[in-house]
Design goal:
The complex is a heterotrimer of chains A (345), B (322) and C (502). With 345 residues, chain A is mainly α. Chain A has 16 helices and 6 strands. A two-stranded antiparallel sheet of chain A has the order 1-2. Helices cover 35% and strands 24% of the residues of chain C. The two termini of chain C are 38 Å apart. Classes of the chains: A mainly alpha (345), B mainly alpha (322), C alpha/beta (502).
C-alpha cells in the first residue's frame, strides 16, 4: 500500500479517477461511447480529442522542465505555427490540394523547429536562464503571429488540412493518433536510448554532467527543439480544428496549462526526474476539468477559479514541506531550518 | 566599479533618450513635454504595477498575478459602485486591502510551503481572473461622478501641460518605492534575500516577514494600478489588462533589474515603463505600422537587455578573479 | 584563564533526529579570552552542537547558560541578540550588497526609520580598519572581494553585534596560508580583547597554532576537554577516531612493476592558464602515481583540471600517449582515457536525484553516446559488481545516491570513473570529508590499480596521504610547480621544505 501511494503515478491517477467518478455521479452516461457513422462519440473521446494539443505541448514541456528549464514560448509557437500553415494554404490556388496542405504543414513544422532551436541556443549557447530566454519569444512571438496573419483571422477551407484536427482514423479522432505517435517517439527516445538519463543528469546537476562527458549543449538544444516541434504540431491541430488561424488568441495560456500538466504529472520544476505518462495524465486531468465544468453548466470562464485551486492543491500535495507540516502539526516549537536539515541528517 | 552596477540603468535611460530623440526628429509634434506626460498618463497603471514587480523580482521571485489582479480590482470596484451603490470612499480602500490580502496570501504560501513563486502566482492569476467572471461575464460601465471626475480631471502644470490624477498617484508610488528600496530596512532586506536567501536567514534578517511583505506590496501595487485603470477605462471587465504581467516583467527587466534577483532599481523600472510607452507612441505616430510591432520590438529589447546583463555578469566574475 | 567563570556552558545536551541520535549528553564550556577548538571526525556532532547553540535546531534535553543565565535561542537571530555569532565556512553574506551593508544589514544606523548611509559607511570603514586591520572601500559590492576578505567582513559583522561568543565554523578551508595568518592575527587580537572564540577546523596544525583548549566529540558523545598544550597530536587523533591510529604503511614499490615508462600517458609541456596556474611541465607514466602537494590555493586543482579540460588552458600543450591533444574538453579527455574526480563531490560529482546504478554507469554511457544505451541487465551487473568491489554501503543499486554517506558517494563516483577504464585517473581530494575507514580503502585501491598499470594524478590536503601513495610528487607553490621529488627523496621533510620554499 505504501509503495502504491509512493508511486509517482498514484496521485495524478487518483485525482483523475476522482474527477471521472464525479462526472459519472453527475451524469451517469458520462462513460457511454456510441458509434455513429463509423465514428466513436462520447465524453471520454472528446476529452482525448480536445486534450490532444495540450498533451502535445505538455510532452515537450516535460523534457524541458526535466533539464531544469521552462519554455514559456509554447503558446506563441502554437499561434505562429497555425498562422504560418493557414497563411500558406490561403495563398494557394487550390486549397483542397493535398500537396499544398503538406507544404503548409512542412513549413509550419520547420518554423517551429527553428523557434525551438532559437530558444535552445539562447539557453545553452548564451547561457541565459530558460524562463527569461523563452520569455523573449513569448512576448515577441505573439507579435510575429499577428504579423503573419496581418492582425486578421485567416480562415481556410482545406479538406486535407482539416483532417489533422477533425478527421478520424479507425473510428477514432486522428489527433489522438498524432498524440500517440509523439508520445511513442518521446518515450522511445528517452527510455530506450540514454537520452532520458542524460536529460535527467543535466537537469539535476549541469556542472557534474559536463565533467561526466555529457554533451549538455546538445541535450539542451534538443529538448527545446522538441518542445518547439510539439507546440508546432499542437498549433496545426488547433488551427485545423477551427479551420482558421488567430494570431492573437490561438494557444493563449497554453504554456501555463502545459506547465500545470507537467507538475501534476509529478515532474518537479527543479529538474531531474521526469514522467511522460504522468504528464499525459496531468493534461487529461486539466481537460477533464474543463469538460466537467462545461457539463455542470457553469460558465467556462470559471474554469480558471477551479484551475487555481487545482494548481494549489497539487503543489501542496507535492510539497514535502507541506506534508511535513501536517505531520508535525503537534510539534509546537518553530525552528524553521530544522525540518529542512533533518532530511540530510 | 560602481559604474558597472549602474550600467544597465544608464543604458536604459540612454535608450529612452535616444528613442525620444529619434521620434522627435522623425515626427512633427513629437518633441514636447506633453508627449512625455502622455506616456505617463497612458502607462500610469503599468508604472505602479512595475514598481511592485521590481521588489518581487529583486527578492528573487516573480508575480504573474498582477494583470488579473488589475482586472479583478476593476471588476470589484465597478460591481460595488455601480450595482450595489457603495460609495467610492469605501470601495477604494476595500479593493486596496483586497489586493494586499491576496498578495499576502500568495507570499505566505510561497514562503511557508516552499512552492515556487512562479506556480503560486500562476494559481493567483487564474483565481483572480476567474473571480472576475464569477462577478460578471460582461463589462460593467461606471458612471459614478467620483470616478468620472477622477478620469477627467487634468492637473495643470506650470507651463501649461497637463497630467491626470493617476500620473500623480503613480509618481508618488515611485518616490515612495525609491525611499522604501534604498532607505529602509525592509528594502535592504529585500535586496539581501535576492542576493542569498540562505545568508539572509543566517544574518538574522526577517525572511518570512520580508518575503510575504514583498508579495503583499506587489498585490497592493497591482490593486492600486487596478484603481487607476478603473479611472482610465471607467469600467470593470474580466478581460482588462490581459498580458499585463508580461509587459510589467519586460519593463522591469528593460529597467535593468536582474531576473535572478538581488540587483535592480526602481528608477530603472520607471524608464523601462517609459521606453515601452515611447515604442507605442512611435508606432502610433508612424501610422503604417501595426500594433503588434510593439510586441516584437519589446521582445527584441528584452533580448538585448538580457544579453547585456549576461555580458556584464560575465565581466563581473572576471573582475573578482584578478 | 581558568580562574574566571565560563561565559558559555552547555551541559548534558541531547539531540535526536529521526533514526539518528546526533548528540547524547554533550557538554561544552567556553571562557572569555580563549580560542577553544571543537574537534571530531565527520559525524561526531560538531555541526549539530553549533546549530543547537545558534538556535538553528531545538534542544531535546540539556541546558545552555550564557553569562550565568539560562538561554535557549530559537533562531540564529535570537542567538545573535544574546551575543552568539557565527561565521560559517561558506561565507554567509549577501554578495550583491556592499561591504558596509553586509556588516550592518538588519541593524543599520537609522533616524526616523531612514537608513543613514554615510554614517553606516563611516562606521564600517572604522570597524574594519581598527579591529580587523582591513582597509577597503566599503561601498563596493562584497562580491568584488576575495573569500578571505569576505570572511573578515563576516567577522566584522559578528563583532558589530557586540558578541560575547564568536563561532568560526571551518573558516580556513578556502583560505591560503597568508590569509590564514591574517585571520589568526585577528583572532589573537580579539582573544586579547576578551572575546570567547569557538573554532572548528580540520587542520591539526591550525588547532595547535591558535587554540588554548580542545574539546573532542566522537559519535555524538563528549570525549573530553583538554588544554591544547597538554594534548599530543597522536593522542588527539586517537581520541577523535577512538582507536589507535593505524598508520598505513607507505607503499613499497617493487622493481618488477611492468609499467611502460617510455611514452607518458599524459604530458604537460608549458601548459598553463592565466590567473590559475603558471606554465608547467609534468609527465605521468603508466602505472605511476604522481602526487600534487602544496597548500590550498597553490594551483594544485587548477593544474589537474587542465589535464582533463575541465578548464581550458591558454598556454602550452598537452600530449596524451605521445599525441598532441588540442583544445581538450571533458568529453574528448574521456575518449582518450582520462578521468577526473573533482574535489567538489556535491556540485561536480554526484547527480543527487539519480540512483547509485545510474550514477555509476553515466560516464561510460556518455562515452558511448546517447544512442547506444547500455542494457538494463548489463547496468545491474555493473552496479552490483562495483558495489561489491568498492564495498559500497548500502549495497542497493536502486538507492538514490543522495541518501548515501559522503564516503559511499565518493566510492560511487570512483566506480563511475573506473568503469570507463581510464589510463589516467585524476583524483582531486578523493578522501576529503569521509571517514577514516573509507579513506584507507580508497588509498588501497589507488595502490592496487596503479600496480595493474593505471596512472594516477593524486591531490590531497593531507600531506601524509600524498606521501603514502605517490611514486613522485610535484610540489606547487604560488600557482607554480616548484619541484618534483622522486624516490628515494620522498619524505615529509623534503616536501615540506619545497612547499615552504625560501
Amino acid at each position: 500500500m505504501k509503495r502504491l501511494v509512493r508511486h509517482h503515478l498514484f496521485w495524478p491517477l487518483a485525482v483523475w479517477a476522482a474527477l471521472l467518478l464525479f462526472n459519472l455521479l453527475y451524469s451517469p452516461d458520462f462513460f457511454s461511447i456510441v458509434v455513429r457513422n463509423g465514428h466513436l462519440y462520447g465524453s471520454l473521446i472528446d476529452i482525448l480529442n480536445f486534450g490532444a494539443p495540450l498533451i502535445l505541448v505538455a510532452l515537450g514541456m516535460t523534457v524541458v522542465i526535466a533539464t531544469e528549464g521552462i519554455d514559456l514560448s509554447v503558446g506563441s509557437v502554437v499561434a505562429i505555427s497555425g498562422a504560418m500553415a493557414c497563411l500558406w494554404i490561403s495563398k494557394g490556388a487550390d486549397q483542397n490540394s493535398p500537396g499544398l496542405a503538406f507544404a503548409a504543414i512542412g513549413l509550419a513544422v520547420l518554423l517551429s523547429l527553428a523557434l525551438g532551436l532559437w530558444n535552445g541556443l539562447l539557453v545553452s549557447g548564451a547561457g541565459i536562464q530558460p524562463i527569461i530566454a523563452t520569455l523573449i519569444l513569448m512576448v515577441a512571438g505573439r507579435g510575429i503571429a499577428q504579423l503573419i496573419t496581418s492582425g486578421q483571422i485567416i480562415t481556410i477551407s482545406s479538406k486535407p488540412y482539416s483532417y489533422i484536427g477533425t478527421g478520424s482514423l479507425a473510428a477514432l479522432p486522428f489527433s489522438i493518433f498524432v498524440v500517440a505517435a509523439m508520445f511513442g517517439i518521446a518515450a522511445l527516445l528517452t527510455r530506450r536510448t540514454a537520452l532520458g538519463l542524460f536529460i535527467e543528469s543535466v537537469g539535476n546537476n549541469p556542472r557534474a554532467s559536463r565533467l561526466i562527458g555529457i554533451r549538455s549543449r546538445v541535450v539542451l538544444i534538443s529538448v527545446y527543439v522538441f518542445s518547439g516541434l510539439c507546440a508546432g504540431i499542437a498549433g496545426l491541430i488547433l488551427s485545423s480544428n477551427v479551420a482558421s488561424a488567430d494570431g492573437n488568441n490561438a494557444g493563449l495560456w497554453y504554456e501555463l496549462d502545459a506547465i500545470l500538466a507537467v507538475v501534476i504529472g509529478g515532474t518537479s520544476l527543479n529538474g531531474g526526474r521526469f514522467y511522460l505518462t504522468g504528464t499525459v495524465i496531468g493534461a487529461l486531468i486539466i481537460q477533464t476539468l474543463t469538460t466537467t465544468i462545461y457539463v455542470i453548466g457553469v460558465p467556462p470562464e470559471i474554469t480558471l477559479v477551479v484551475k487555481a485551486f487545482v494548481v494549489l492543491v497539487v503543489c501542496l500535495i507535492q510539497s514535502e514541506t507541506f506534508r511535513n507540516k501536517i505531520a508535525e502539526r503537534w510539534r509546537t516549537r518553530h525552528y524553521p531550518a530544522e525540518r529542512e536539515v533533518t532530511r540530510h541528517a | 566599479m560602481l559604474n558597472r552596477k549602474y550600467l544597465p540603468v544608464i543604458v536604459t535611460v540612454g535608450l529612452f533618450l535616444l528613442m525620444f530623440a529619434a521620434g522627435s526628429l522623425r515626427y512633427d509634434g513629437f518633441f514636447s513635454f506633453q508627449v512625455i506626460l502622455n506616456l505617463l498618463i497612458d502607462n500610469a497603471y503599468l508604472l505602479i504595477t512595475a514598481v511592485g514587480m521590481t521588489f518581487v523580482i529583486v527578492s528573487g521571485g516573480i508575480d504573474l498575478s498582477v494583470g488579473s489582479m488589475i482586472a479583478l480590482t476593476t471588476m470589484v470596484s465597478a460591481s460595488l459602485v455601480q450595482e450595489h451603490g457603495w460609495p467610492p470612499g469605501v470601495v477604494i480602500p476595500l479593493v486596496l486591502c483586497m489586493g494586499s490580502a491576496f498578495g499576502w496570501l500568495m507570499g505566505a504560501i510561497i514562503h511557508y510551503f516552499k512552492i515556487q513563486p512562479f506556480i503560486v502566482t500562476l494559481a493567483g492569476m487564474f483565481l483572480a481572473r476567474g473571480l472576475c467572471y464569477v462577478i460578471s461575464l460582461n463589462t460593467i460601465t461606471i458612471d459614478n461622478p467620483f470616478y468620472t471626475t477622477m478620469a477627467q480631471t487634468k492637473v495643470r502644470l506650470p507651463g501649461g501641460d497637463t497630467v491626470s490624477i493617476s500620473v500623480i498617484i503613480a509618481l508618488v508610488v515611485v518616490i515612495a518605492a525609491l525611499y522604501l528600496a534604498h532607505y529602509t530596512r525592509f528594502g535592504r532586506s529585500v535586496y539581501a534575500i535576492g542576493g542569498s536567501e540562505q545568508s539572509a536567514l543566517l544574518m538574522g534578517l526577517p525572511i518570512a516577514r520580508t518575503k510575504i511583505l514583498v508579495y503583499t506590496f506587489s498585490g497592493f501595487c497591482s490593486s492600486l494600478a487596478g484603481v487607476v485603470f478603473t479611472f482610465y477605462m471607467l469600467s470593470g471587465y474580466g478581460l482588462h489588462a490581459v498580458g499585463t504581467e508580461l509587459d510589467t516583467i519586460a519593463a522591469v527587466v528593460i529597467g535593468g533589474t536582474l531576473l535572478t534577483g538581488g540587483v535592480g532599481f526602481v528608477a530603472g523600472t520607471f524608464f523601462g515603463v517609459l521606453i515601452q510607452g515611447v515604442i507605442q507612441t512611435i508606432i502610433s505616430f508612424e501610422g503604417t505600422l501595426s500594433s503588434w510591432w510593439t510586441k516584437i520590438v519589446i521582445g527584441l529589447l528584452l533580448f538585448l537587455f538580457i544579453l547585456l546583463q549576461r555580458l556584464l555578469s560575465a565581466k563581473g566574475r572576471q573582475a573578482v578573479r584578478t | 584563564m581558568q580562574d574566571n567563570e565560563p561565559i558559555l556552558q552547555m551541559t548534558g545536551i541531547h539531540k535526536r533526529f529521526p533514526g539518528v541520535t546526533a548528540l547524547s549528553g554533550v557538554s561544552f564550556r567556553l571562557f572569555p579570552g580563549e580560542v577553544h577548538a571543537l574537534m571530531g571526525e565527520n559525524g561526531a556532532g560538531k555541526s549539530t552542537l553549533i546549530k543547537v547553540l545558534t538556535g538553528v535546531y531545538s534542544i531535546d534535553e540539556g541546558t545552555v547558560t550564557l553569562g550565568g543565565s539560562k538561554v535557549a535561542a530559537r533562531s540564529p537571530l535570537e542567538a545573535q541578540a544574546l551575543g552568539i555569532s557565527t561565521v560559517y565556512q561558506e561565507v554567509n553574506l549577501c554578495p550583491n550588497l556592499t561591504v558596509a551593508e553586509n556588516v550592518f544589514v538588519g541593524r543599520e544606523p537609522r533616524r526616523f526609520g531612514r537608513i543613514l548611509w554615510k554614517e553606516m559607511n563611516r562606521k564600517a570603514t572604522e570597524l574594519l580598519r581598527e579591529r580587523l586591520h582591513l582597509d577597503i572601500d566599503v561601498t563596493l559590492p562584497l562580491q568584488d572581494y576575495s573569500v578571505a576578505v569576505q570572511q573578515l567582513v563576516a567577522i566584522a559583522r559578528a563583532l558589530n553585534i557586540s558578541s560575547k561568543v564568536l563561532i568560526l565554523d571551518e573558516p580556513t578551508s578556502s583560505l591560503d596560508r597568508g590569509e590564514v595568518e591574517q585571520l589568526f592575527r585577528v583572532m589573537r587580537k580579539l582573544k586579547q580583547e576578551g572575546l570567547a572564540i569557538l573554532f572548528v577546523t580540520h587542520f591539526l596544525d591550525q588547532v595547535y597554532e591558535i587554540s588554548d583548549r580542545i574539546t573532542i566529540l566522537r559519535n555524538g558523545e563528549f570525549v573530553g576537554e583538554y588544554p591544547a598544550a597538554d594534548l599530543p597530536r597522536l593522542e588527539l587523533v586517537s581520541r577523535m577516531i577512538g582507536k589507535e591510529v593505524e598508520l598505513l604503511e607507505r607503499r613499497i614499490r617493487g622493481e618488477a612493476s611492468a609499467a611502460d615508462r617510455t611514452i607518458p600517458v599524459a604530458a604537460a609541456k608549458g601548459l598553463g592558464r592565466k590567473g590559475a596556474i603558471e606554465p608547467f611541465d609534468l609527465a605521468i607514466h603508466q602505472g605511476e602515481v604522481v602526487g600534487l602537494a602544496g597548500l590550498l590555493g597553490s594551483g594544485r586543482t587548477e593544474a589537474a583540471r587542465l589535464f582533463f579540460g575541465a578548464d581550458r588552458s591558454d598556454q602550452g600543450r598537452l600530449e596524451l600517449s605521445g599525441a598532441e591533444a588540442t583544445s581538450i574538453s571533458p568529453r574528448s579527455a574521456l575518449d582518450k582515457g582520462i578521468a577526473f574526480c573533482s574535489e567538489n563531490r556535491k556540485t561536480e560529482g554526484i547527480i543527487e536525484d539519480l540512483t547509485v546504478r545510474e550514477n555509476i554507469i553515466l560516464a561510460l554511457q556518455a562515452t558511448r553516446g546517447w544512442f547506444r544505451a547500455i542494457s538494463r541487465k548489463r547496468q545491474d551487473e555493473i552496479a552490483l559488481e562495483y558495489i561489491r568491489l568498492l564495498n559500497i554501503n548500502p549495497p542497493d543499486p536502486e538507492q538514490l545516491i543522495r541518501n548515501l554517506s559522503g564516503g559511499n558517494q565518493q566510492k560511487v563516483i570512483l566506480a563511475r570513473w573506473l568503469l570507463t577504464q581510464p589510463k589516467l585517473l585524476i583524483l582531486d581530494e578523493p578522501t576529503r570529508g569521509i571517514d577514516i575507514g573509507a579513506k584507507a580503502e580508497i588509498q588501497k585501491l589507488v595502490m592496487t590499480l596503479s600496480e595493474r598499470g593505471m596512472a594516477f594524478l593524486f591531490i590531497s590536503s593531507e600531506l601524509e596521504e600524498v606521501l603514502r601513495v605517490s611514486d613522485r610528487i610535484a610540489v606547487l607553490r604560488d600557482r607554480r610547480i616548484v619541484k618534483e621529488i622522486a624516490e628515494p627523496d620522498i619524505n615529509q621533510q623534503n616536501v615540506m621544505q619545497a612547499i615552504a620554499g625560501g
